[in-house]
Amino acid sequence: MLSNILSRRLLVPHFSRGLATHAPNPFPIPAALHFKSGQSFCGRSFGAPKSIYGETVFSTSITSYTESMTDPSYRGQILVFTTPMIGNYGVPSNEAPTDSQDVGMVLESRGIQCAGVIVADVAEKFSHHSAVESIHSWCERHGVPGVTGVDTRAITTLLRDQGTTLGRIAVGADSTLPPPKPEEYWDPSKENLVDQVSTKTPYLLNPEGDVKIAVLDFGAKANMMRSLVRRGAAVHVLPWNYDFNAIRDNYDGLLLSNGPGDPLHCMPAVLNLRKTLEQWNKPVFGICMGNQVIGLAAGLDAYRMTFGNRGHNQPVLALASSGSIKAGRVYVTSQNHQYALTLQDPFPVGWEPFFINCNDSSVEGIKSAAESGKRVWGVQFHPESAGGPLDTIEMFTDFVDECRALKASHEPHLGNVKETYLVEPVGRVA
Ligand SMILES: NC(=O)CC[C@H](N)C(=O)O
């Protein structure tokens, strides 16, 4: 027995050494990450061998790289993962519908949305029952470059100190050239990225649903629509700048989705929403960009944070109770944002802060005050989070229940048309 253990101990390092000596380098192409602030990091290229510009941000999520990379809110960004090894469970097919309430994809959108990815150690081998390819081949197919073999601790420390920084991934021969001049860096925050990712034409999901919910698509993650459909709603997805006021009486509720970039690019939607809030008294729920649009419509300001909040481990404290949310409790949430609403005293009349971030005290949500008679909630985090945690997933049940209850109260002849859906808190189609 003892000799068995000893021989295994001796064999393992010997075997590893053998592999390291003889296996060809799977990522032979050199690559560099340059920052506008002057620093450069040299590593190896994986994914598409292509040079790009972007805004460099870091995420502290340990898992769910596939959901993060397909989140349209990462549009134009070079995503640095603080978790050292990324790719070890591969990438699932995004095509196969896996349940009857499918919304047309498995991940958060049709393709990879971030401009590039930076990892300390990209997994060459992967293993998962639903995996069909490696992160390398997935990025290659989608034309997205990755850099591996860099010190992501040093990069993250830098980004925490100096804030989100414009960057360039230079691949192959480009990586041997001098870094770009400061004026050559592309700044995605200057563009209306929402307009690039929002649906161009309206579409309907689950038409037989008993409550009709409109979604203003600022770059919606698919799990938002899935979370509504799972609760029995018919979901009509509209372009971000659609004139909802012209059709609002056809709906029982409105959801404003997440989306990339500076919320000030969404002023047409803010002005539309201001009118909606003045004249329409049905439930409105905003998530991330949606929360910022609600806040701007309510009269709050939005500001750019130093390095934002990105990860699946952001603690928020509830300041008010509403539905499944209890004041005084801390919920762990998924987040991806660079902007936040200002915490001001007093808050605009008819509004109150809903959540606050336990790390940096930024506003994590607002709600209409009880005396306003409105039913409006906004959260800066992602209750639908396909990659978890699911601490706040029941906010979707609260929202759909509120829409259903209001509809039933307006249609007494129909009575309570359908029982409230008590669904398992499932985070994604899997
Ligand atoms: N995920 C989001 O909706 C992000 C909202 C906005 N683009 C921000 O960065 O703050």
Polypeptide structure, described:
It is a single chain. With 430 residues, the protein is α/β, with parallel strands linked by helices. The chain folds into two domains: 27-190, Glucose Oxidase, domain 1; 193-410, Class I glutamine amidotransferase (GATase) domain (Rossmann fold, 3-Layer(aba) Sandwich). Helices cover 23% and strands 28% of the residues. The chain has nine helices and 21 strands. It has a ten-stranded mixed sheet with strand order 12-14-13-15-16-21-20-19-17-18, sandwiched between helices. A hairpin with a 4-residue loop joins strand 1 (30-35) and strand 2 (40-47). Helix 7 packs across helix 8. The radius of gyration is 23 Å and the shape is globular. It starts with a helix and ends in a 20-residue tail after the last helix. Bound molecules: glutamine. Glutamine binds next to strand 18.
Structure at a glance:
Pfam families: CPSase_sm_chain, GATase. The protein has 430 residues and is of the alpha/beta class.
